[in-house]
Design a protein that fits this description.
single chain; alpha/beta; Rossmann fold; 6-stranded mixed beta sheet; 7 helices; 10 strands
């Protein structure tokens, strides 16, 4: 599903952010990527979603080599990889339903399909009774669930969650993680980027640890070791 071969990333100041990263994530896996601030995990996320290009090496999503992906191709990549960020990025003047629908409207989908897809994904995340609420009318956990719903509208094969619980209290954070596990059970590959030790240890799933731009540990049923 995802394969990185000898990936290096350095910026113009020649500071190396990623060094000789080799990584394979299979379809259907739930993987946590952990590391301290500045370890390189955010750069890795940006490479996977086409926001950054590698300095050298290859990055495959399925059979697609995205190492030198062009800007025109990025929207097609984003339909294969759903992305959830720490800051919700919801449009404040649109309802939750409208926020989720917008991701399909910009692609020119028919209204009948939009209505069906939005209804389905809002049901998956448990927000079918909050669809007409605005972001400022619901809790942080509900906002994040709306973001997850939005990330699912293109039925992505991969869901990349970058610190999705960073702005949430423990109860809402656990609810979001339980929802990611549910989505993983549907067959979606889930990549969780986090520094939350408690969540990683509770999951007892594969854990990839990054430090100073290098993978220092890859545990099948891992713990947070950094």
């Amino acid at each position: 599903m995802i394969k990185l071969i000898n990936v290096n990333k350095a910026y113009k100041n020649k500071v190396k952010i990623l060094q000789d990263v080799n990584l394979k994530i299979n379809a259907g896996e739930f993987v946590s990527i952990v590391g301290q601030s500045g370890s390189g995990k955010t750069t890795l996320v940006k490479i996977l979603i086409g926001e950054e290009l590698v300095s050298s090496g290859q990055v495959f999503v399925g059979d697609w080599d995205i190492s030198k992906i062009g800007k025109a191709e990025v929207p097609f990549l984003r339909r294969q990889i759903g992305v959830i960020f720490q800051d919700f990025k919801l449009l404040p003047k649109k309802t939750l339903r409208e926020n989720v629908a917008f991701a399909l409207e910009v692609c020119g989908q028919k209204q009948s399909k939009i209505d069906k897809v939005v209804s389905n994904v809002m049901k998956i995340v448990g927000l079918q009774n909050k669809m007409n609420s605005y972001p400022n009318e619901v809790s942080g956990g509900e906002q994040q669930r709306a973001v997850i719903a939005r990330s699912l509208v293109h039925q992505p094969k991969i869901l990349l969650a970058d610190e999705p619980t960073g702005n949430l209290d423990a109860i809402n954070a656990n609810d979001v993680i339980d929802l990611l596990l549910k989505i993983n059970d549907f067959g979606t590959t889930v990549i969780l980027v986090t520094h939350n030790r408690e969540i990683v240890n509770r999951l007892n799933r594969r854990v990839i640890s990054i430090d100073a731009g290098k993978i220092i540990s890859d545990q099948k049923n891992g713990k947070y070791i950094i």
